[in-house]
Write a structure and sequence with these properties.
heterodimer; A: mainly beta; five-stranded antiparallel sheet; 11 strands; globular; B: mainly beta; seven-stranded mixed sheet; four-stranded antiparallel sheet; 0% helix
C-alpha cells in the first residue's frame, strides 16, 4: 500500500511553459513534504519543501502547493528549462523521522 | 564543505557473498538514513540513526541486512549472503537533526552504491 503516490510516471513539457507535477498521500500524520530532483547516476537533490501549516511555498521558478483536505500536493515549475529534465520525487515525513518517497515522475523539457 | 559520500560507487557480488557499503555523512549531521532504490522506483526507507543509536530499522528487508554507526559519523550497511533481489541502488542521506525545526528535516543524499548480485 503506497503511502505516497505519483500517478504520472512521465511528463513532457515545452521549454518556457509550466510543468506541474502531482503527488498524493494517504497518511494524515505526515506534517512535512519535500520535492527532490534526481539526475542519472546521482543521488536525489533537495529542491523545495512545505510544512503542513502552509499551503504554498515559493522559491524562484519553483512553487509547491499543499491541499491538506485532499491530501494532495503539486510542484509548479515556471518557466520550464531543458536543465529541469530529471526525475522528481515527492517525499513526506512525520516529524522528520519517517520519510516516505513516491515512485517519481520523469520530466522532459523539450527545447 | 564536502557532501555525503558513499563507497564503493559500484559493487558486483556473486550470490551468497557478503558486502559492506560505506557512508560518510556531512560533518556534524546527527541523523543518518539508509534507503534502497530499485530500478524505476523511489527510495525505500531501510534504517535510521541518530548519532550512534539506531532508532528505526523497520525497513530492513531481512536479518541478512545489518547497519551500524559506532561512533556517530561513518555508517556501514552490511548485507550477508546476498541474493539477486538485493540488486538495487543503496542511498545514504544525512540531516542536521530529526525532530528539530522543519528546516532540519532536509536530507542530503550521497550518490549511492549500485549493487548488482549475479
Amino acid at each position: 500500500d503506497q503511502q505516497v503516490k505519483q500517478n504520472s510516471p512521465s511528463l513532457s513539457v515545452q521549454e518556457g511553459r509550466i510543468s506541474i507535477l502531482n503527488c498524493d498521500y494517504t497518511n494524515s500524520m505526515f506534517d512535512y513534504f519535500l520535492w527532490y530532483k534526481k539526475y542519472p547516476a546521482e543521488g536525489p537533490t533537495f529542491l523545495i519543501s512545505i510544512s503542513s501549516i502552509k499551503d504554498k511555498n515559493e522559491d524562484g521558478r519553483f512553487t509547491v502547493f499543499l491541499n491538506k483536505s485532499a491530501k494532495h500536493l503539486s510542484l509548479h515549475i515556471v518557466p520550464s528549462q531543458p536543465g529541469d529534465s530529471a526525475v522528481y520525487f515527492c517525499a513526506a515525513s512525520d516529524y522528520g523521522q519517517n520519510f516516505v518517497f513516491g515512485p517519481g515522475t520523469r520530466l522532459s523539457v523539450l527545447p | 564543505g564536502a557532501g555525503v559520500s558513499q563507497s564503493p560507487r559500484y559493487k558486483v557480488a556473486k550470490r551468497g557473498q557478503d558486502v559492506a557499503l560505506r557512508c560518510d555523512p556531512i560533518s556534524g549531521h546527527v541523523s543518518l538514513f539508509w534507503y534502497q532504490q530499485a530500478l524505476g522506483q523511489g527510495p525505500e526507507f531501510l534504517t535510521y540513526f541518530q548519532n550512534e543509536a539506531q532508532l528505526d530499522k523497520s525497513g530492513l528487508p531481512s536479518d541478512r541486512f545489518f547497519a551500524e554507526r559506532p561512533e556517530g559519523s561513518v555508517s556501514t550497511l552490511k548485507i550477508q549472503r546476498t541474493q539477486q533481489e538485493d540488486s538495487a541502488v543503496y542511498l545514504c542521506a544525512s540531516s542536521v537533526v530529526a525532530g528539530g525545526s522543519a528546516a532540519d528535516y532536509e536530507q542530503y543524499f550521497g550518490p549511492g552504491t549500485r549493487l548488482t548480485v549475479t
